[in-house]
Amino acid sequence: MNENGHSPVTKADLESALASLFKQVVSYVDGRFQEVDGRLQQLREHVDERIYDTETRLLRAFNEFATAQDVRLCNWKRISGISIPPPL
Q1: Average pLDDT score, the chain
Q2: Would residue 22 count as lying in a domain?
Q3: Distance between CA 40 and CA 46 in Å, rounded?
Q4: 50-69 pLDDT, tens per residue?
Q5: For residue 3, is pLDDT > 70?
Q6: Which domain, by its residues, includes 34?
Q7: Are 39 and 33 within 8 A, CB to CB?
Q8: Tally of CA atoms within 13 A in the half-sphere of 6 that contains its CB
Q9: Is 1 part of any domain?
C-alpha cells in the first residue's frame, strides 16, 4: 500500500480496465450508429413521400391544363367551323 491507502495498479489491472472501457465505448458507438441509421431511414421515407406527393400534384395540374386546352380547342373549332383532325 502507498501513502493514500491504495495498492498500486498492475499491468493486468490496467489491461482489464481498458478492455472494459473499450467495450463500453464500442457499445455506445454502436447504439449511436443504430439511432442515426433509424433517423436516416425515417428521413428517407419522408423525402420519398414528399417526392411522390409532388409528382402526383404535377401530374394532376398537367391533366387539368390539358383538359382546359382541349375544351378551348373544341370551342374554337366549333365557333370557327374549322375541321382539325384529332391527334394520334
Answers
A1: 89
A2: yes
A3: 10
A4: 999 999 999 999 999 999 99
A5: no
A6: 12-76
A7: no
A8: 4
A9: no
Residue 7 lies in a domain: no
Q: Identify the CA nearest to 71 among candidates 57, 60, 79.
A: 79
76: alpha, beta or left? (left if phi > 0; alpha if psi -120 to 50): alpha
Q: For residue 20, give the amino acid letter.
A: S
Residue 32 domain-assigned? yes
Spatial distance between the Cα atoms of 64 and 69, rounded to a whole number of angstroms: 9
- Beta carbons of 78 and 72 less than 8 angstroms apart: no
Rama region for 81: left / alpha / beta (φ>0; ψ in -120 to 50; rest): left
Q: How many domains is the chain built from?
A: 1
Q: In 1-88, which ranges are E strands?
A: none
Percent of the chain, pLDDT > 70? 86
Which cell numbers hold the place of 47?
423525402
Return the amino acid letter for 61: A
For 6-32, what is the mean pLDDT? Answer: 93
